[in-house]
Structure formats: C-alpha cells, structure tokens
Amino acid sequence: MPFENSTISRYMDYTRKKFFIGIFLCLALFALVIISIKIGAANLSFYDIINALFNRDANGALIIWNIRIPRILAAIIAGVFMGIEGAVMQCVLRNPLASPYTMGISNGAAFGAAFAIIVLGAGTLHSTHADAVIVNNPYLTVLAAFLGALIGVIAVLLIARVRSVTPEVMILAGVAMSAMFSAGTMFLQYFATDAQVAATIFWTFGDVGRAVWNDVWVMLILMIPAFIYFMYHAWDYNSLESGEDTARGLGVNTDRIRTQGMLISSFTAAVTVAFLGVIGFVGLIAPHIMRRVIGHDHRFLIPTSALLGALILLASDTLARSILSPIVLPVGIITAFMGAPMFLYIIMKMRR
C-alpha cells in the first residue's frame, strides 16, 4: 500500500510539472499577443488597445481588428500546427530531423499552390491593405497544395519502408524532393506571364501578414479536426516511440497510424502553405525544445509543442515587423535564420 501511494504521488508530480509548463506557455503567449498588438507603424498606447478591443468605434480599432488581430491569429494557428506536425512526423518516422519543411512536403505544397495560381487561375495580382497577391479561390489552392504535399508524403513513406535506411538518408531524400518541387515551380514560372510570376514569387515568401479574417476562419475550421485526431492517438504515438514491435504488441496498427499521421500532417501543412506561403523550421525547433523539457510523452508533447510553435512564429513575426521598421520582413526569413543553426546542431549531434 505505501508503495502504491508512492507511485501515485510520483505520477501526480510528473503530470503536475507538465501541466504547469503548459500554463506558463499559455501566459507567455498571452503576453506576447498584447505586445504584438501594440507594435506596428501606428503608435497605439495600451489604453487605445484596450479601448479598441471593446469598442469598434474607438481610436485605432480599425487597425487592430482588421490588420493586427487577423495577423496574430494566423501566426498562432500556423505555429500551433507546425509544432504538432513536427512532433508527429518525428515520432512516426523515428527521425529527429523530420518536419514538413525538411522532408520536402512544404515545397510540394508550394508547387501545388503555384500550379493552382498559374495554370488554374486561382490567384490574381491586386493591391490591398493586406497583400499584393489575392488567392481568389482558396479551396482550389488548398486542394492543389494538398495534392503536391501528398506526392512528397508518398515518396517519404516509400523511402521509410526501405530496410536499414538511416535518418541522414531520409533527410537527403527530403532535400532531393525539395529540389524537384522547386524545379517544377520554376518550370511553371518560365512559361507564366509577368504578373503570374510576380504573384507566385511574392506569394512564396512565408508571410502571416497576408491573412484576412476569412483566411483565419477557414484555417481554423480545417485544422481543428486534425488537432483532435492527434490528441486522440497520443497513446499510439507513445507506443511507436518505444519501437515498432512494442507498439504492435500493444495492439497498435503501426502502418495505419503512420500513414494517417503523415497524411493529416501534410494536409495541415498544405493549408498553411496555401494561405501563408512557405514558413520553415518552426516544426523542427518547437518539438525538439519541448522534448528536452518535458520528455517524450505525446499527451503533453503535442499540446506544448503547439504552444511553443505559436510562440516562436508570433515572436518571429513581431521581430520581422519591428527590426527594420517601417519595412516589414516576411516572417519566413526570420524563421530560416533561427532554424538553420538548429538544423546544423541536430545533424552534428546525430553524427556523434
């Protein structure tokens, strides 16, 4: 009986620590949202912000509700799902370098979206307060981006089935897939009009500032079922983390879990790329940091990686808006600067 009480006590301490880390990340994200609302070309005081949040006719309300809040929500939603995608892919592929960006899936989605914009006419060149490029048929663009990502996923799954394949080989295969999709995108641009080329190049830069309220709602509606699915299968990912044989011994259909996880991850990556462009490395950084902090239990790793992914992307976007103000950099440039050293660090660690 004392032994049982001691075990229960240790388990309660184990879960309590992870719960408090999640609370801390939520508070940090809330604080960053307030800071991000305040930072911008228009100088607004905290009083103006609070007043505008509750009064649509107040000073600055138009800027906050039509520009800054949709941008912040887009960064949070995209960051959440990049963190989840990285955690799930690193588990099902048993590869610490796996993420939609490093495995070529994001570039596959970018190729599909470029195909929709250039060939199928899903994008046009306009000048608005939010962006110079308008995706006038987001559903067609998301579908084409998903099909492009699906090709990348199938290639990765086929490579993963080859016996004795190493994590380094899989990453090299991802680099090859990225190069192939980039070549395909350039091929389309070569035969496109000047306006279409300008639209696709401008669109390819990962930038959360192009999101408007409709984009935010569509992204949220499409991605919430994926989050529920991943959390529902958290125990299955824990089993996979212990090894293929252990997972099968516990009754997990490993092939189905792996395939579904990759497909749903690629779908959420495709939705993000279709609306915001290619934003790399957030899905690589967030799960690695959280795995070191809270361990490999996916019941906690998935939601905390999601929160940290949102924090990283929102902080990067806030930095992109302020570092060369009034010039606003695409957030993909900031995440690439942060993620490349992390990528090299993981490679060096794997070589030891």
Automatic annotation (TrEMBL):
Subcellular localization(s) per the UniProt record: Cell membrane
Biological process (GO), any one: siderophore-iron import into cell
Protein family (similarity comment): Belongs to the binding-protein-dependent transport system permease family. FecCD subfamily.
Name the record gives this protein: Putative ABC transporter permease protein MJ0087
GO annotations of cellular component type: plasma membrane
Domain of life: Archaea
Keywords: Cell membrane, Membrane, Transmembrane, Transmembrane helix, Transport
Annotated transmembrane regions: 20-41, 72-93, 105-127, 139-159, 171-192, 212-232, 263-286, 298-315, 327-348
Membrane topology: Multi-pass membrane protein
Example of a GO MF term: transmembrane transporter activity
Primary localization: membrane
Pfam families: FecCD
Source organism per UniProt: Methanobacterium formicicum
